[in-house]
Write a structure and sequence with these properties.
Layout (H helix, E strand, L loop, with lengths): L3 H5 L8 E5 L18 E2 L2 E2 H4 L2 H6 L1 H15 L6 H13 L3 E5 L5 H5 L4 E3 L2 E8 L5 E3 L19 E5 L9 H10 L2 E5 L11 H7 L3 E6 L11 E4 L2 H12 L2
Parallel strand pairs: 1-4, 1-9, 4-5, 9-10, 10-11
Antiparallel strand pairs: 2-3, 6-7, 6-8
Helix pairs in contact: 5-9, 7-8
Bound molecules: nicotinamide-adenine-dinucleotide (NAD) and zinc ion.
Length: about 240
């Protein structure tokens, strides 16, 4: 925790802070990141369950995977890192924004309000025919491939797969290019376009801060890097920032 006062003495309620989180922030809640498990996501090959091609060729397998993830999401809880970000938002109000690559919904459960889920949320699905969106709790998941109650089209998880465009990129661009501090937590810096946001923030004049278990691929764009567990480091940092 060296250099903190030097770095953060300028953080006030007026500072615009944008936080980007990845799978690492949920690791201490018991949800595995896939890169840490050798490219596998809970024993599945990512290409077999998280690409549009996979859904085209084997929708039942893809649905089985997300039904499992959904079941798991109901058994886990936010950890101190999720709650630290809620504290930071309470302090900064509209000057705070959270962008997450996670699809587990844990930031919502913790209570974050100003949030963009750029890769969607696995507690939702939508119809590939009429686009109607549903909460999974409203859908009969006993069906191998759940069907849209309105039009009988196939439903798919509301998750952005590899090779698909993340949601809300324009808004994300604006937020990141206008912030004073950009904080990245628990993300490998490999998955684009999310990984490019760090560079955008830096080029736009923000101070950049990283918290990660391992050094991320884009560490060269991070001004202040804290190596370790988000659930241990983030609560301490936030306490110091909001004094
Ligand atoms: P990643 O799996 O590629 O990388 C996770 C990073 O978190 C690693 O660099 C690792 O060192 C770090 N990490 C692990 N434990 C940590 C901890 N306790 N504290 C801090 N850092 C920790 O994840 P990614 O870069 O977010 O990309 C994976 C993509 O896959 C995401 O875009 C997401 O959509 C999806 N995914 C989501 C979840 C989820 O919703 N929880 C889980 C796995 C994958
Ligand atoms: Zn439909």
């Amino acid at each position: 925790m060296a250099n903190l006062s030097a770095v953060f003495m300028n953080i006030t309620k007026e500072s615009k802070i944008v936080v980007l989180t990845g799978a690492g922030i949920s690791a201490e809640s018991g949800i595995k990141t896939f890169r840490d498990a050798g490219g596998l996501w809970e024993n599945y090959n990512v290409e077999d369950v998280a690409t549009p091609q996979a859904f085209d060729s084997n929708p039942i397998l893809v649905w089985n995977f997300y039904k499992e993830r959904y079941k798991q999401s109901k058994t886990v809880s936010p950890n101190p890192a999720h709650y630290a970000l809620v504290e930071l938002e309470d302090y900064l109000k509209d000057n705070f924004f959270l962008i997450t690559q996670n699809v587990d919904g844990l930031h919502n459960v913790a209570g974050t309000k100003r949030i963009i889920e750029m890769h969607g949320n696995l507690t939702e699905c939508f119809c590939i025919n009429c686009n109607a969106k549903y909460k999974l709790e409203k859908i009969n998941l006993a069906q191998d491939i759940p069907i849209c109650p309105k039009c009988n089209g196939y439903l798919r998880p509301n998750v952005v797969w590899f090779g698909e465009m993340p949601y809300h990129l324009n808004k994300i661009d604006t937020l990141v290019s206008q912030c004073n501090y950009f904080i990245v937590v628990g993300t490998s810096g490999i998955v684009y376009p999310a990984a490019g946001l760090l560079q955008l923030a830096k080029y736009s004049g923000a101070k950049t801060i990283g918290i990660n278990l391992e050094k991320p691929a884009n560490i060269y764009s991070i001004d202040y890097f804290y190596q370790g567990k988000a659930g241990e480091i983030l609560p301490k940092l936030v306490k110091q920032w909001i004094i």
